[in-house]
Amino acid sequence: MVRVIAPGSGFDPAHFEAGLKVLRERLALRPRFRDDIRARQGYLAGDDRRRLAEWNEAVADPEARAIFCARGGYGAMRLLPDLDPAPLLSAPKLLVGFSDVTALHVRLNAAGLVTLHGPVVTQLGRAPAEAVEHLAALLFGAVDGDGAGSGLAGTATIGAGRVSGPLLGGSLTLLAHLCGTPWQPSLRGAILFFEDVGERPYRLDRYLTQLRWSGALDGVAGVAVGQLSGCDGGDGEAAATDRRLVGELGVPAIEGLAAGHEDLNLALPLGARATLEAPAPGQPGAPRLRFDEGATA
């Protein structure tokens, strides 16, 4: 059994039902959720009190093996002052989601927990078979060799090299907005993964520059860039901007991972150890992010 929560924005009911069908029929999971999960308060899925109570109930549910988020949007970071990761340390449950859910990933990863940056329920109904199989391999610890759940392929090297470390990150926007808060991520020694949607190139520049000047990127070991969906007008300026700014860090880095806001959103085990392989021109092999530990390690 898994719990489904809505820690951020409200969601489309039809997309939600389509995602529940994937949980039940393609992943053989039994979803459970509160009767008021469809609540609305403006742009939020109900007020903070409702969403926090929903989180606490999901964490305390002794039958739940994982917690799936219905949608991202905005709102999860509003829960951080009252979110206690301690119960999950004694009875771990995998948190699954992305985008705004990054705020929860950062909080739990900082406490030493592994989480899954992967499809939310309202995205699952559009997910191709590859994404569902990859998610299943990580959920059930069924990774075999270089197959589903073993890692993600990149499309190009930004900075050559090979490095290992904990995999951290998520939405670039959320990572930047957490700067200056008690939950600002520490990425020293880590491989940073980020993706985003609908952010113009100058905003991507702003977020990466904010992370850099805040000290959040001090000592980062490597960078893996995911999907930058709808971030330019088709001219490649967004990718070029990230390529330039990431390159300035002088660490091994790759781009083009199929993780983010596209239908093909391959899950990553945040907080687990990974190895980033970024071959230089002429070197054998392809850019790749390998998962040294699975989500259930």
Q: Please, could you describe this protein's structure?
A:
This protein is α/β, with parallel strands linked by helices. The chain folds into two domains: 2-126, 3-Layer(aba) Sandwich (Rossmann fold); 151-291, 3-Layer(bba) Sandwich (Glucose Oxidase, domain 1). It is 29% helix and 22% strand. The protein is built from nine helices and 14 strands. The strands form two sheets. The chain has an eight-stranded mixed beta sheet. Strands 2-1-3-4-5-12 form a six-stranded mixed beta sheet. Helix 4 (102-110) links the parallel strand 4 and strand 5. Helix 8 runs parallel beside helix 9 (237-247). It is globular and about 55 Å long.
List its salient traits:
single chain, 297 residues, alpha/beta, Rossmann fold, Glucose Oxidase, domain 1, eight-stranded mixed β-sheet, six-stranded mixed β-sheet, 9 helices
Give the SSE map:
Elements (H helix, E strand, L loop, with lengths): L1 E4 L7 H13 L5 E2 L15 H13 L5 E4 L16 H5 L3 E4 L4 H9 L4 E3 L3 H4 L4 H11 L11 E3 L2 E4 L1 E11 H6 L13 E7 L3 H14 L7 E8 L7 H11 L5 E3 L12 E3 L2 E6 L9 E4 L6
Parallel strand pairs: 1-2, 1-3, 3-4, 4-5, 8-9, 9-10, 10-11
Antiparallel strand pairs: 5-12, 6-14, 7-11, 8-13, 13-14
Helix pairs in contact: 8-9
